[in-house]
Amino acid sequence: HIYADAKNASRAVAHEIAELIRSKQREGKMAVLGLATGSSPKTVYAELVRMHREEGLSFQNVISFNLDEYYPMEPNAVQSYWRFMREQLFDHVDIPAGNYYVPDGTVRPEEVAEFAKQYEAKIDAAGGLDFQLLGIGGNGHIGFNEPGSLINSHTRLMMLDNSTRAAASSDFGGLAKTPRKAITMGVASILSARRVVLMAWGERKSPVIQEALEGVVTEHNPASYLQTHPNALFVIDEAAASQL
Ligand code: GLP
Questions:
Q1: What is the DSSP string of 133-146?
Q2: Is residue 158 assigned to a domain?
Q3: Which of 55, 59, 82, 112 could form an SS bridge with 75, CB 3.0 to 4.6 Å?
C-alpha cells in the first residue's frame, strides 16, 4: 500500500493494530504483538497513544515482544530499545507491567543462547505472534537480521554490519562506541507471525524496497523473505515507492 506520506500510512497501520486488539478483546483473548524500534514506527506508536487517550483503546489484553536489542546494552541506557519502547508507547498506555518483552542486552555471553530459546518459548506459550511490525534497514535487514541471515534462522546474537553501525553511530557518539552485536529474533521467528507489516518512509529506502519487493528472494536482502509469507504487507510512502 502506497500512501502520500508517513503520517497517513502510520495511521492506517495503527488502525489495523487497534482493530486486532479490539477484536481479540471481544473474544476475551490476548493480542500478541511483535514490535519494532527505529524511527519508522514512532508515528504508529504516537497514533496508538492518541487512540488510547482519546478513544479509550485499552492495551490490557496485549502481550508484546520486541524484535531486537543492542548487545551489550543496559535497559536504562539512552540508546536501549527497552527505553525506546517505554518512552514511545508502554509508559503512555495501560499495558500491564510484565506483558511486554524486549530482548535482554545484559545477559552474559554464555547465557545468550539459552535466553534466545526462552524468548521464543514465551512467544509460543502466548500462542504465537498475531501481528509483526517491521522497519527495514538500508541493507534490507529486518530486526537485526543482517544480509546473510537464513530463512530458518531463530533468535540469536548477530554481528552488526558496518553500514548498520554507521547508521546508528550518531546515537552512540561515534562508530567506535557503537555496539558490534545485537540480539535479534530470527527470520523464521518473524515469518511465523500470522500477519506481517513492514513500513518504510523516504527516498533513502527506495532502492532496498524495490529489491525486497521486485527482486529475487535472497539472503542478501532479508526483507525479500517476506515474499514467501502468505499475509505480509508493505506500507510505504510515495518517496519509498519511487523506484518500483
Ligand atoms: C534498526 C532496527 C531495525 C529498523 C532499522 C531501520 O537497525 N534494529 O528494526 O528497522 O533500524 O530504522 P529506521 O526506521 O530508523 O530507518
A1: EE---TTS-BTTB-
A2: yes
A3: 82
